[in-house]
Amino acid sequence: MQTERRRRLTLSRLAPWLIGAAVIVAIMARIVFLVTQRDYNPSFFAGAMLQSLQLGSLYALIALGYTMVYGIIRLINFAHGEVFMVGAFISYYIFSRTPYAITWALMVAALSAFGLMYVVSLWRGRLTDPVVLGAGLLGFLSLTLTLSSSQLGWIAALLLSMLMTGVIGILLDRVAYRPLRGAPRISLLITAIAMSFFLQNAGVLAFTGNVTAYRPETSWTQTMQLQFAGGTIYASRVVILVLLLTIVLVVILNLFVTRTRLGKAMRASAQDPEVAQMMGIDVNRVIATTFLLGSMLAAAAGVLWGLSYGTLSQPAVMGLLPGIKAFAAAVVGGIGSLPGAVIGGLLLGFMENFFTALIPGVTQYRDTFAFALLILVLLVRPSGIVGEDLSEKV
Amino acid sequence: MPQDRTVRNALLTVAGLALLAIVLYLVQEQGGTKLQQVFALFAIWGTAAVSLNLINGTTGILSLGHHGFMLLGGYTTALLILPELNRERIATSARSLMNEFTLSLSVENWASKLGLEALAAPEALWLRFIVAMFIGGLVAAAFGLLVGIPSLRLRGDYLAIVTFGFGEIIRLLASTDMLSSFTNGSLGYTGVPGLVGKSLWWTFGVLAITVFFMSRLKFSSYGRALQGIREDEVAAQAMGINLAYNKVLAFTLSAFFAGVAGGLYVSWLSSARLDSFLFFLTFYFLVAVSVGGTGSVTGTLMGTALVVFVLQYGDPLEQTYPLTTWVFAGGVLLALAALGTFVYRGTLRLRPRLNAAVYLLAALALLTVIVSYVGPSFDWLQGDFRAFGLRRIFLAVLLIVIMVFRPSGVLGRAEFSWAWLLRERRDEPTDEERAQDDWMHKAAAPVGGDEPRAAAHPLLELGAKDEDNGAGGEIDARSNRAGRTQSDEGRET
Amino acid sequence: MAMLEIQNVSKSFGGLSAITDLGFSVHEGEIISVIGPNGAGKTTLFNLITGVYQPDNGDVYFEGRSLVGRSPDQIVGRGIARTFQNLRLFTNLSVLDNVLIPQHHKIRSNWLSAVLRTPGYMRKEREIHETALEKLSFFGPRLMSFRLHQPVLNLSYANRRRTEMARAMATGAKLLLLDEPSAGMNPKETTEITQIIRRMRDEGGYTILLVEHKMNLVGEISDRVVVLDYGEKIAEGSYREVVANPKVIEAYLGKKASETEGGSDADEGSVIR
Q: pLDDT, tens digit, for every residue of C82-129?
């Protein structure tokens, strides 16, 4: 039973829409103005478009983690931004040492393959299950190959970072969130904030306290030139990688959620954990899976972030803003909805990029804008674009 | 002997306050600079944490924007009180965006314009500071009103995120060109007079006022209404509580005191900078409130004392030690974890008490300790390590542990009381209860004035036969009391 | 002139009609029961009167003034209070606080005088304390004495129900809406609650509108009974008239009886009697 809101067209109801309309009109006016200028160049828009897609994909990958966790345990995983940071730094430490000598590569690959087999065996039951063995073998081969290669190191960094960050995600749930199942959601949120604070400082302790240059050896970071409508777009090749990888990961995630038993159990738990438990679903395992997948996606985003922007800011602050923006994206898309997170992420990337690219002098408001958007969406339409209303039911 | 206890408790309270006054005097007059700083910081953060407790504890809304309120109060105070010398320095600086108008904003200017020579005099700096701090509080309160409005539409975690967003937006906007003419951008203000924020009498005076205000508010009808909102919003509204008014009231009052604390804080720091008002400030207060007892004013003060102690005296944690020492410390931690698991299983009556986890932890602990002793003979265990940020990590872990094992904090919602400290059992009814029992038995003695209904209680007989509630016919407080009840002592009726 | 007038009220949720064109009135000093199978719209009716929901159509008048568009707390101020079907007490607060909170709206002093404890505020505070004790004493000794300061979560279920009724009375309402006051109570406690409700009217002067499943309770105290089925009023009148009404018998025992009555503790035998 929820206190019904009276539908009255008051100023307070209209204000957010008016603000939104004003922003859109301003951007449109700016575009028209640019188009009428003599030095107008369509490739400028195309370049901005590419950058937006890139940024949006990264937000989408992080937002998926927020939305999956919220969908299942109704927790705003405040520490997710820090998980992203951890993923980025783990990949940096693996990446910066490639190519490995073949003996080291074999050792690391073997160890990681065992880790991978252990993680997979948590779901398949036995270590001798063909799927587990297959995953182990595949992991071993691909890691040995990529770790010792001078050009394919990013694959090893990606895989290892995803694996390790995924395990950290599971630990996060096990240590901090699982003891609080059934506790008030506010306690859970406070724990998440504490966990975020912990990871920030542990990151400084474990990694570095400085800004880190992320410039490993790979051809992905080279610049390419594209001819477009009479102009030249300069863009990093990594754009292609970001887009491809995002599409691949999202497709795999979608297949997992809709096709596999565990994925279906996940969706069932998101609907109603208690009933799901009564139907014989091990909800704790499902939640652990959710954290694993969310953290793996965040780690992938971390690797791509490093490749895209070439630097990692210091661990205490690196996760905060991308995390908050991705959360805003998840809310914009409709929290709890996987397609919503992707749409929201892309939308946020576009808005942020175009906002700053089109209107000079607003770069300093870039972060403010993300927070303002978050507040606005939460106030006006907490259910987001495609999501159902998951706000607290009385 | 309830009468004696009341007297004894009053005496103990007076003695405690006198002791505090003596300690403050000694610290102010004899103590070292460090000790004075720590005491003042406790009072300042205590003010902020107690004000946060009004929203987080009493009203039950998780607010994460407290650093924003403190920033507003702090910057306002700093701008209004900045000495002329520092203003000139800012005016001549090329990097500053401040203009004629914003630089002229000062209590001193206003006082001399209004002809209040006494206020504009150099000796009256403390008075100007109080005025500036009050205005800072009002500015923060105005913003608190604004932040409180979303609480009408949102609940729980979404609302928490919105308050967090507001807190961050204040900070981000303060560094932009738009507001740099007021805030002096990333440069901030230096040379804020420290005479108030560094004085124990002023800081503890403000803390005392805040504690007085907040505890009075908590035990007033308004406080009860806020607690009703915390327990069940729908029921509170159905019982005539105006949710909008009360929630916004809580935000506004809380923001006011946070703003005042911000004013003290810039004075304590002697400067106003944007990176003094980061989110971790709110986090510390959150730790203080959660550890001490969510909703308890005295509990919050205890939590603040802990946080300030860890941060101010925890630097041995962050010094350079040989790696082997760290390994040894890790072993000790693991051993403690093993012991903790053992005790925890014991209290939960889980069997076997020594399960695999205990053995594993104990074995790891042993192994680690051994490694730390033989360590120096290995290459890779030689060298030093400095653990930056260990104090913060400690606080974060503490908060997680509290949330997992005792989510309501050490004191819970109750206030500190001597009975709680002395572990007193309440075996005898209080005077109030005796009076009520008398009233109940004298069926014809109406308390509620000339109510005829109070005279006749046919249900007294009906209740007498009713055994299922354990109330029985004879109202005997002794037989039914479940051990010690602590809440009564601190609560005035 | 009726105290509460419900005129052609309709309410639907997403196309599903919960209340259709409902109308009846409650006169001062009456005890009216609303009965009907589960899902008949009884609690929705309460939510409409107390402002939790707003009606799509029709109007609700209390003492001649419309309640539509008022928020729940404003409606309490007008003089209507309710209890909840599944208890919504302030569980961590003491019994006394639970009965003091509904009197907050009577306090006219602002927060500053409450903090400063001005004489005017303290007088009012004493008054509401006395009212609280008076309302609690309605239920005999079991909510008094040491229980006053116990948190509600230590109370037995029956005592919680009593506390909730005391809480509704403490608002100073003239009309009480009781949502299944005897749910979860044993026969002895039900008898007691029946007497309490009668005393509320006779001694307290309250007008009472109640939703109840236990037919013997309804039969014993109701002046009139309103029967709802699928959101429509199918009968109204004295208990004897109503239970003899073939429509009512069909609603309760008709072909859908096995589904609609599942799980409730309604005494079906007494309907036929």
A: 999 888 999 989 999 999 999 999 888 889 998 989 999 999 999 999
User: Residue C133: which H helix or E strand, with range?
Assistant: helix C119-137
Q: CB–CB of B416/B299 below 8 Å?
A: yes
Does residue C142 or residue C99 have the better pLDDT? Answer: C99
Strand residue runs (E) in A207-359: 212-213, 223-228, 231-236, 311-312
What contacts C187, CB < 8 A, 6 or more positions away? none
Does B392 contact A191 at a Cβ distance shorter than 8 Å?
A: no
CB contact (8 A) between residue B158 and residue A187? no
Task: Look at residues C73, C52, C60 and name the one whose alpha carbon lies nearest to residue C25.
Answer: C60
Between A183, A375, A392, which is nearest B156 by CB?
A392
The CA-based dihedral angle spanning residues B226, B228, B229, B232, taken in that order and rounded to the nearest 10 degrees: 170
Nearest-by-Cβ selection for A394 from B150, B234, B399: B234
- What residues of chain C lie within 8 A of the CB of B437, using their CB? 144-145
- Enter the pTM of the model: 0.86
Q: What letter does residue A100 receive in the DSSP assignment?
A: P
Contact B239 C167 (CB under 8 A): yes
Asked if A198's CB is within 8 angstroms of B404's CB, the reply is: no
Phi, psi of B112 (to 5 degrees): -75, -30
Low-confidence ranges of chain A (pLDDT < 70): 1-16, 38-41, 229-230, 385-394
pLDDT, residue B425, reads 60
The burial class, CB within 10 Å (0-12 / 13-18 / 19+), for B345 is middle
**CB contact, 8 Å: B380 with chain A?**
no
- DSSP class of residue C151 equals B
User: Could you give the dihedral angle defined by the CA atoms of residues B417, B423, B426 and B432, in that order, rounded to the nearest 10 degrees?
Assistant: -10
pLDDT of residue B204: 94
Per-residue model confidence (pLDDT) at position C107: 87
Contact between A176 and B404 using a beta-carbon 8 Å cutoff: yes
Distance of CA A323 to the CA centre of its chain: 8
pLDDT score recorded for residue A79: 94
Contacting chains of C (3 CB pairs or more, <8 Å) are A, B
B239 to chain C: closest CA residue: C102
Does the beta-carbon distance from A191 to B404 stay under 8 Å?
yes
Strands (E), chain C: 4-13, 16-26, 31-35, 57-62, 65-66, 80-82, 175-179, 207-211, 224-229, 232-237
Evaluate whether B126 touches B195 at the Cβ level (below 8 Å): yes
CA gap A312, B76 in Å, rounded: 35
C250 in contact with B, Cβ within 8 Å: no
Q: Kindly list the distances between the CA atom of residue C62 and the CA atoms of C4, C6, C80, C169, C226, in Å, as whole numbers in the listed order.
A: 5, 9, 9, 17, 18
Q: Tell me, what's the pLDDT at A155? A: 86
Q: What is the ipTM of this complex?
A: 0.87
Inter-CA distances, C168 with C161, C183, C214, Å: 11, 17, 21
Q: Which residues pair with C17 in a beta bridge?
A: C12
A160, A110 contact by CB (below 8 A): no
Chains that touch B (3 or more CB pairs under 8 A): A, C
Identity of the residue in C52, C97, C105 whose CB atom sits nearest the CB atom of B240: C105
* Selected residues 7-66 of chain C with any CB under 8 Å from a CB in chain A: 47, 52-54
* Residue A125 DSSP class: S
- Say yes or no for a CB contact (<8 Å) between A3 and C72: yes
Distances (CA, A) of A226 to A42, A233, A355, B445: 13, 5, 24, 96
Q: Do A205 and B237 touch (CB under 8 A)?
A: no
Q: Which stretches in chain B have pLDDT values below 50?
A: 1, 443-493
Q: Identify all chain C residues contacting B448, using CB atoms and an 8 Å cutoff.
A: 130-131, 133-134
Rg (CA), chain B: 28
| Neighbour tally for C181: CB within 10 Å | 25
